[in-house]
Amino acid sequence: MASNVIGAVATLGLFAALWSGALSFPLLLALLLVVGIAELGFDISRTGYTVSLVPRERLPHANSLIEGANAVGEGIGPSVGGWLFDAVGAALSLLFDFVTYVCSSVLVLLNVLDRRKRKSNAAPERKPQQDEPSREETAKGDEDGVWQGVRFVWRNRILRSIAFSAGQFNFFTAAFFTIYYVFVVRVLHMDPLAVGIAATCSGIGGIVSSVVAGTLIRRMAAGPLFVATLFAPALAALLVPLSAYAAVCGTVMVIALVCVSQFVWSFTVTVNLVLSESVKQVAAPEHLLGQVSSVERVIALAAEPIGALAGGLVADMIGESMALYLCAAGLATSVAWALNRHGILSFRKPDEWQR
């Protein structure tokens, strides 16, 4: 809830600065930094909060709903934002963000108050998963919480394989999409409408995936499913540069291949995110979920700006098409971190997930 409040205050400050004409570039960067930190805090705390609210057997389903809501927001958010910008202007459109922060804070507050009323019905403490240090081992001493998370992720081979795979995957994802938009416009000659259609297919893929992710996780072994959903985006990425060869079949074929690429990418990535989040919530003790989430977020997010910069530099050196092939290869090799038999492949789903 604190993250929501901070985000709301920063957004309100951005509105006030823009409305009064006092907005400067340094102030804009500062306020956007605050908003980004608030969003990161919300995502990290959400992991532990979900575990405290949802029974273990419902974790994959709950994470599917969360990712589905994210997919819907990412799909319709830009359209709503564009409409508001045209209808009321840049400053007033920011008030919509402020209202969403307030609504989210109110919902969290109502839930907290309701939980306090039922505090006596708290769930029993979970037993540690395999390859997990004991609570006494991870909690002893007065060590800093962040370093506890670093040590826990490093010692837990399951979480370590997920974190390093995600780091490399995010690096090449950022590089890929830095080049992607330039490539589809310059090389594939897609107009804004076609690019928008491809983005819509991506959003649809995320929504469809969130509906079926829980079922897939329940019916398939976690390790092979993780590897498959990490490798499939590499195949989807290949369709983008390969679609240039379909130009002889017409523009419709080119657009269709790009749309299929974006749908498959979003579908498989969403399943992977739901699975990774669910595994993390089971493999880590509840009191360390915040620290573990922080470490994994840092690994994943730190790779993105570096990957975006590297993607642009490599595209300038060898061309957009070859750079996209290189990104696809990098995405495919992300699974190497997960192929160790002591990593995610060793994860055994809780009996509750089989129901």
What does this structure look like?
- The protein is mainly α and 355 residues long.
- Helix content is 78%, strand content 0%.
- Helix 1 runs antiparallel to helix 4.
- The longest helix is centred in the last third of the chain and has 33 residues, at 251-283.
- It is globular, with a radius of gyration of 22 Å.
- The two termini are 33 Å apart.
Largest sheet: none
Helix content: over 70%
Mean pLDDT: 80
CATH-assigned homologous superfamily of the largest domain: MFS general substrate transporter like domains
The level-1 CATH class of the largest domain: Mainly Alpha
* Shape designation: globular
Number of strands: 0
Protein structure class? mainly alpha
Number of helices: 12
Provide the number of structural domains. Answer: 2
**CATH topology type of the largest domain:** Growth Hormone, Chain: A
How large a portion of the residues is in β-strands, by DSSP E? under 5%
Q: Which regions have little confidence, pLDDT < 50, spanning 5+ residues?
A: 130-143
CA(first)-CA(last) distance: 33 Å
| H/E element order | HHHHHHHHHHHH
- Level-2 CATH architecture of the largest domain: Up-down Bundle
Cα radius of gyration in angstroms = 22 Å
